[in-house]
Write a structure and sequence with these properties.
globular; alpha/beta; about 280 residues
Length: about 280
């Protein structure tokens, strides 16, 4: 039996460096988020905002809802057709899933992303499309570039052909099984989120609280991970770093009296920005 390694701040120190004085936005990569079908645009926007707050140089939102031309809260986000969000120059990371839906267009976007030579994070509806489509699973297994799946227990169960109760009863084994079956990195979300790699490594997060059981938290986490990849971390390290930071930001807000009841994903993303900067100062 593999015992997970606990993620601690002292392990993460040095993975990211403070920015040099002569920095340029191009030094910090790009993130492309594809999702936001009609009625679900907020999910993609949350992921994009989190990516900007966590330091990505440029963020492109490929919205499937073409009625939205800009994010009035964060006009820095570039709203583009979905196919344009997939055509990024490295360093970059693609996020497929927040509010993606299950349409033919959504499926085509996921298939196109899996053919790109960039790191890809698949979340939410992207995972559900993957679970029921053997062709998409084949594309995933054949990818030369790195991939990260970020399921909650229900999504993990669909990928494994199990119910969520079985996944929860054996979280460690489920995370490892997913990593081996699909040949990619896994974040199994929940209390004590797990990161599993295809080569058998297993990490367990030690931060977080019940306030994270709220809408949009997974979208924000996806954007945070992608931002760290755009800034030079591997998908594995970005996942480890981001889940610890995500939980620590929620813990900080609760300690300040802003939760756990009513804690919002946007608040966590903004708190994560402040916490990340404080960690970098002490690195």
């Amino acid at each position: 039996m593999v015992v997970p390694m606990d993620i601690r701040l002292d392990v993460l120190r040095g993975w990211l460096k403070p920015r040099p004085v002569d920095s340029h936005k191009g030094d910090f990569g790009s993130v492309g988020v594809v999702g936001g079908a009609p009625g679900m645009a907020g999910a993609a926007l949350l992921a994009g905002r989190a990516a900007l707050w966590l330091g990505a140089g440029r963020v492109y939102i490929g919205l499937l809802d073409n009625r939205i031309a800009a994010d009035p809260m964060m006009p820095e986000l570039m709203i583009v057709p979905p196919e344009h969000a997939l055509e990024l120059a490295p360093p970059a990371c693609l996020v497929l899933g927040p509010g993606l839906g299950h349409s033919g267009t959504a499926r085509q976007c996921l298939a196109d992303a899996l053919r790109k030579p960039l790191p890809v994070l698949i979340d939410a509806d992207g995972l559900n499309l993957l679970a029921r489509d053997s062709e998409l699973q084949t594309l995933l297994k054949q990818r030369p570039a790195s991939t990260l799946l970020t399921p909650h227990p229900g999504e993990a169960g669909r990928l494994l052909g199990l119910d969520s109760q079985t996944v929860q009863a054996e979280r460690t084994g489920s995370a490892r099984q997913l990593a081996i079956r699909f040949g990619c990195n896994i974040v199994l979300k929940g209390a004590g989120s797990l990161v599993a790699t295809p080569d058998g490594q297993l990490w367990r997060n030690t931060t977080g609280n019940p306030g994270l059981a709220s809408a949009g938290m997974g979208d924000v986490l996806a954007g945070m991970i992608a931002a760290l990849v755009a800034q030079g971390l591997t998908l594995e390290r970005a996942a480890i770093y981001a889940i610890h930071l995500h939980g620590a930001a929620a813990d900080k807000l609760v300690a300040e009296g802003q939760g756990p009841v009513g804690l919002s994903a946007s608040e966590v993303a903004q708190a994560a920005r402040g916490l990340l900067n404080s960690w970098l100062k002490s690195a």
